[in-house]
Queue: 4 jobs
Job 1
Amino acid sequence: MRLENARILLTGAGGGLGHELARQLSGHGASVLLAGRDVGRLEALRDSLGTRVAMVAADLTRTEGVALTARAARDFGVNVLINNAGASAFGLLETQPWPTVEQVLTTSLEAPIHLTHALLPWLKAQPQAAIVNVGSAFGSVPFAGFAAYSAAKAGLRAFSQALRRELADTLVAVVHIAPRAIDTPMNSDVVVALNRALKSQSDSAASVASEIVAALVRNERELHIGFPERFFAWLNGFAPSLIDRGVAGKLPIVKLHAKSQHSV
């Protein structure tokens, strides 16, 4: 895709990855409609990026927020939707309050499906269009302590693949991107400590944004960012029991950090 011809709706634009995506997409000549809930962050980002950038403030977990964002996207002439907004929560499922679980599922799975549903007729009418769903390595390698988040991201990956097959006879491309851990403010201190204890590698928001932009330019449809996570995603599909055993060995560390979270 030629980004100078792209008019992009970017959700979660106020977050760490969203900020970098907006900056890099705009730098490649794309027009970007920033979507998020924090008006101040959106305004500051819009003002820093120039005249090809607009914004819409809305809560995508609410029906009226989806409708408002979809109207703004049509008015902007969007031909690319990037579902980047998401929510995560670390902890053992049995000790997590249900509203926390519900927020993760609603923000990371239901909201992107809802917005895609609202914009699909519009996108199908464009000469060229794309839907980009930003998932997670945990969608392919579900991990202890992130049950709800893993479920949401696995659902988003399945949604992406099913929709791609459903739209095979159209000009709408469906792209699924699965980054590994990203250094953003969304990670709590406990999650940062957990990643350190597990020796899990993470990437900067700028480097992940660069990978996503490159995938759009190359017209890729599936991308797992990072090794060995890419290998583990393949292995989990081929022999999940091997991943079960590997994660079981890390479970004491996960439980220790989950317990420390409640004492903070």
Job 2
Amino acid sequence: MLNASIVIYKHTFDEISLLVKILSVHESVHKIYLIDNSPTRTDNFLKLPVEYIFNGRNLGYGAAHNIAIRKTIDQDIPYHLVVNPDIEFEASVLVEMLNFMNEQTNVGLLMPKVLYPNGDTQFLCKLLPTPDDLLIRRFIPARLTKKRTSYFELRDSGYNRIMDVPYLSGCFMLIRTQALKEVGLFDERFFMYPEDIDLTRRIHQKYRTVFYPHASIIHHHAQASYKNVKLLLIHIRNLIKYFNKWGWFFDAERKKVNRETLNQLKKM
């Protein structure tokens, strides 16, 4: 059994209703929380089979999901699904993922294969980042960083096998509630962007954090910070907070975890 949370900001009813429908017909879904960070309340959302929580202001991605995650912990629901509003998937995806989590009790976080609408793979399995990976590379032409990007995104793995990965995308996270009880929720110091790095990393310290390619979803990934200067500045500010927390160029745990991740792939 699981609860699911969707955080929205200025989304329309039509943009959300399909995802809610997919989730609501799944027998394993106990409750769906629709967390609205928009400045204006949308009463149409009350028509959906969700618990609609209107915040009246933008709390940030992680802080908004934490509202629902705390309810999941209080209700003692074994799993919580963090899902972006721009996701499409078949109901069988949750069956596959829950079966794996039930069998592999040392897995704290599971992410499926993520595809673009055209079927191409989104490379969302990553090593723990260095400042080069997330800050410097952001301003360098892609053709000059192709090799480093491929390494950072574990592209040589082929994305066709189960892997333990220390940084998984927050667009679709199936999380064991017990793991959240142990390591804590999303760090609310991060308004948006690096909160999924931080949470995956903390779960990875005590549990396996796994990429599961036998189930796939479609993500209409907008990469908004590449198109909006305000979001770019928010992105940079929050990445600075991330490296202030974990370490910039000297991060012994990062070095150890990334080495273990790469060694694991060599053995496969």
Job 3
Amino acid sequence: MSSLAQEESRLISENVTWGQRKRFSDGKVQMPYKRFLGYEKGENGRPVIVETEATVVRLINRLYLEGKTSAEICNHLEQRHIPSPGGSSKWSKTTLDSILTNEKYKGDALLQKKFTVDFLRKKKKTNEGEVPQHYLEGSHPAIIVPE
């Protein structure tokens, strides 16, 4: 019985993986909206800019371009009582660096950044060329200019 259950789990995992890769190849962008600063899911399922949050993203990018370090930007945001994407009053350098390096803020999307290695343990791995990635330019409205 456990062998049958494991085989069924593997088949379901393969079907889900196929569906995700099909969406990626079709150019359908998904975002973790609950913890993603600046966007929300629109009526048509596509990302829509939340202007109050987008202002924070633009501020972060402007301060970075002015030469501020990640620590200085975190302090600046905390002093202004601007909550992090998770709602915390504290900003981590990791969160800030993620915002500064995420291509989605310039309107592009890199799909299949990670993939599931083991369907039983649901272990994910950063994609280093093992599975195809798709880079979509202009896939949704940009908060910052690409330059």
Job 4
Amino acid sequence: MIPKEVFEQTLLAFFEPIKPFLDDASVSEIMINGPFDIYIERKGKLHKTDAKFSSHYALAAALRNLAQYVGRHLDEQRPILEARLPDGSRVEAVMPPASPDGPSVAIRRFFKETLTVKRLLDFGSFTQDAADCMHALVACKQNIIVAGGTGSGKTSLLNVLSSFAAEDERVVVIEDSRELQLQRPHVVQLEARPPDARGRGAVSIRDLFKATLRMRPDRIVVGEIRGSEALDLIQAMTSGHGGCLSTVHASYPIDTCNRLETMALMADVGLPLFALRAQLASAVDVIVQTSRLADGARCVTHVTEVRGYDPQGGYLLADLFVREYDGKDANGKVLSRFVPTGELPKSLEMIRAHGHELPQVMYDAAERRSARRT
């Protein structure tokens, strides 16, 4: 049997044309549009490179070796590969015939340096006041969904939010492909598995979720909700498993509710739509919305509380913090402020019961809001 270290070195030799980018900490994504057309992302902006693979066969050989490395199959019948490089970077590849112009690959870089609250504050992703608010919400076991588009910083933010959980909590993490680096001492990592070449041995997110409920979790973290497991998460959130954290692809907080609803319906359990909506509104406490701005910066744009469901008005949402925009400066940088709205969370008493307090600016904004109304 080939030693793992030798296999890794051999595998990386196939990816030699892009190795400089794999070693460059400033590169967040590598996009391969066939062997001769390679782009990278730095600071949220795309740049075309001069890197090239020698041929379609060379790129295909690299991907087939990667498939072998992770124990998956890649051929004309199974042309899509989800995998990880030895350093943990996530790879999504599509081969012909599904990609007629040649193999198409996106590599999301894995950074060994763990992002902290301080780093995100330095980046301007949010403010210290918003961080204090999110800390209080996580600590009092509110169920939180981090929503945003591709590359908007959802996973990084989820890692940071996890650092607000108590150190004595048992956290069970469920992922399709391992990406999260939770900053807690007691973490159980579970990973889904696709079926083998004969369609056997699949372990789905739903399978892992059901197992997790009997593993005595203090907090459940689902890396990303993509399908029918949304219903299982909603059920867990409403049955005593507080403090759940997860991510979902959505552009605005209201879209998050609608997407979760749609994915829960994929479970096909015959739950009446009104009952599902009411349960979803009861399950999800807070939505933290992320976005990539026009200048490439990744920011939190909303911290929004879910306050129920009304048959006439739909999901009832209240923004606790929102990002306000002031145009661009001379260098094209987006000027913005992340400010409290004057709304206070319904969980205020629970926050205080857990020994936490909201930042003073939220109470000041609430007073100003009340004064304007009178």
